[in-house]
Automatic annotation (TrEMBL):
<feature type="transmembrane region" description="Helical">
    <location>
        <begin position="579"/>
        <end position="601"/>
    </location>
</feature>
<dbReference type="Pfam" id="PF01061">
    <property type="entry name" value="ABC2_membrane"/>
</dbReference>
<dbReference type="Pfam" id="PF00005">
    <property type="entry name" value="ABC_tran"/>
</dbReference>
<dbReference type="InterPro" id="IPR013525">
    <property type="entry name" value="ABC2_TM"/>
</dbReference>
<keyword id="KW-0812">Transmembrane</keyword>
<protein>
    <recommendedName>
        <fullName>ABC transporter domain-containing protein</fullName>
    </recommendedName>
</protein>
<feature type="transmembrane region" description="Helical">
    <location>
        <begin position="474"/>
        <end position="495"/>
    </location>
</feature>
<dbReference type="InterPro" id="IPR027417">
    <property type="entry name" value="P-loop_NTPase"/>
</dbReference>
<keyword id="KW-0547">Nucleotide-binding</keyword>
<dbReference type="InterPro" id="IPR003439">
    <property type="entry name" value="ABC_transporter-like_ATP-bd"/>
</dbReference>
<feature type="transmembrane region" description="Helical">
    <location>
        <begin position="441"/>
        <end position="462"/>
    </location>
</feature>
<feature type="domain" description="ABC transporter">
    <location>
        <begin position="87"/>
        <end position="335"/>
    </location>
</feature>
<keyword id="KW-1133">Transmembrane helix</keyword>
<feature type="transmembrane region" description="Helical">
    <location>
        <begin position="516"/>
        <end position="539"/>
    </location>
</feature>
<dbReference type="InterPro" id="IPR017871">
    <property type="entry name" value="ABC_transporter-like_CS"/>
</dbReference>
<keyword id="KW-0067">ATP-binding</keyword>
<feature type="transmembrane region" description="Helical">
    <location>
        <begin position="700"/>
        <end position="721"/>
    </location>
</feature>
Amino acid sequence: MFPDNINKTSQFPQHSSELITGELSIVTGDSCVVGNVIQPVGDALKEATGDESAVHEVLVDVTEPRPVPFVLSFNNLTYNVKVPRKMALPGFSRRKGGSADTDFTGTKTLLNDISGVARDGQIMAVLGASGSGKSTLIDALAGRIAKESLKGEVTLNGEALESRMLKRISAYVMQDDMLYPMLTVEETLMFAAEFRLPYSLPKSNKKMRVQTLIDQLGLRNAAKTVIGDEGHRGVSGGERRRVSIGIDIIHDPIILLLDEPTSGLDSSSAFMVIKVLQSIAQSGSIVIMSIHQPGIRILGLLDRMMFLSRGRPVYNDSPTNLSLYFSEFGRPIPENEDKTEFALDLIRELEGSPEGIKTLVEFNKSWQIMKTTAQFELDRLGFTLKEAISASIARGKLVPGGTNDVTSTSMVPTFANPFWKEMVVLSSRSILNSRRMPELFGVRLGAVLVTGFILATVYWQLDNSPRGVQERLGFFAFAMSTTFYTCTNALPEFLQERYIFMRETAYNTYRRSSYVISNALLTIPSLTLLSLVFAATTFWAVGLDGGYPEFLFYFLIMLASFWCGSSFVTFLSGIVPHVMLGYTISVSVFAYFLLFSGFFIHRNRIPEYWIWYHYLSLVKYPYEAVLRNEFENPTKCFARGIQIFDNSPLGSVPSDVKLKLLQSIGNSLGMSITGSTCLRKGSDILKQEGITDLSKWNCLWITIAWGFLFRILFYFSLLLGSKNKRS
């Protein structure tokens, strides 16, 4: 089981007494808290405001030493996923060492019987090569794996963590920095405070919390700088990462989980990030992060390390014991060599050996046995969850919704703010971000203006002849379809916000319904302006019939069309993950809507097996509405006398011949038909086009209703598609 050069007593190292003493010193000794780091800020706030209680709500009381109040335990975590079976060819055996990962039942084990303990005041780092299970373990602790798929248990101070409680007392920082690019650092953190801190907390206290956090994160010099993106210069990569951490710790979570927070950063920025995490831990939080390969300076900031190999733990102890551990294992770390680099290289070497990592896994188990006594002492000195949260509140730690009479089942509300407050904050953030990127709306407005100008000049002052009627029909069909196609420009908006939305709603920052309603309300002013511009550009220039009442309805149906198209595109963005795929689907669907709208083929000519699509066509209803608005005037004539022969083979016949034909037809019908007799009214055109069922106002309401339906479907797509959990 073990290498030959390891004696039996090495399974229980002789230095265990030193380790136990070190563990107990964490419990009984004085610990530095974040108040020591930011105490000058608290003094400055107190001096400026004269309110000592306000400072107490932001800072941690450092006047007395404290025991460890929070202990996060995870026991026997195991997680399997289904994988496609691979057909094995006769005479070929499976790769050596692969039996630990994949079995013949078509499953792959990502986590294999992992146990550990993390305490507040400490940073626990999860290390391992790519594919070792680091991110999967962080997801398991963050509740991002479905309960039915994850075996084992996760407890806080001995009590199982329910999903609702976990979301309110923890925070998860993704590997990618998903932030609004045109908000400043201070604005980003302030909006996070509005979302995550209790509604009952005065805004002045929220501002003080933000200012304190800016100092704690080392972002004072960048507080007024925008986040930035590819097209806008902003803060540095390290500052972005610290802002990402800040928005998730604004509510002072008990548990902070981070997925490779130093990824993509230089050594100096990475060290600064871990230094910030150390101060967060010392403020009374449990900090657990995955990290690929920490440098020597970062290693000195870590309190515990867990090395994983193919989903199994091979080391779980303090970084200071790393040399002793591998020495007892029989593979001592050479002097002046990076400890973590040596450990990762050794693990990789063992993974490629015939016996695999089994020996190291078993040695780690024996190493953990000797720490049972220390663990017993820690459990004996620990708090229940109710007592721990009460003690944290008494020390001034901000626990959302916390009170001194908390219970283990209902200690925090599901959301920090009421519904209307969430909508106000969401709207304010979106408006502020959009105001600083006017080019996005400018492109849509420009497209509508150009399209309206082209249509106005092409269909300039149409007459009331049969040719003019046919040209009117073409104008209306193109105009209605334009309103829908223009809406596809809004497709990238939610797709760009998707990961921000998923991160925020995963931990109940706000309700999904608040986001949907806020998003809908914010589109109305811009759609109103687009509709007004298009209607004013085309109505009088094309020579459409009617005065201001007809223009008002024309404007309303344009607005309803923009609303319906925007809602459809918004719904599509909730179910389609990529911009190009969304464009392809939306353009295709809008083309089918136009095809079955009734312009290219009349309703009575559509095959029965396609007639359902005619009634589902979003273009059908606004198209019929504008036709009724144009042709319902009973005094308007669209074919007088010989004009009836236009657009027919008799159109080129001389006028006197046409008059004789009219007289002959009149004599046959027993009526007098002259060159000025009205032979075609608007009602005749509507019947010819098959528009007989719905009034123009009914068409308007149906178009608006389609928009509301797609907003509701958008909500359900977010509800079902943004669980942000592994199955």
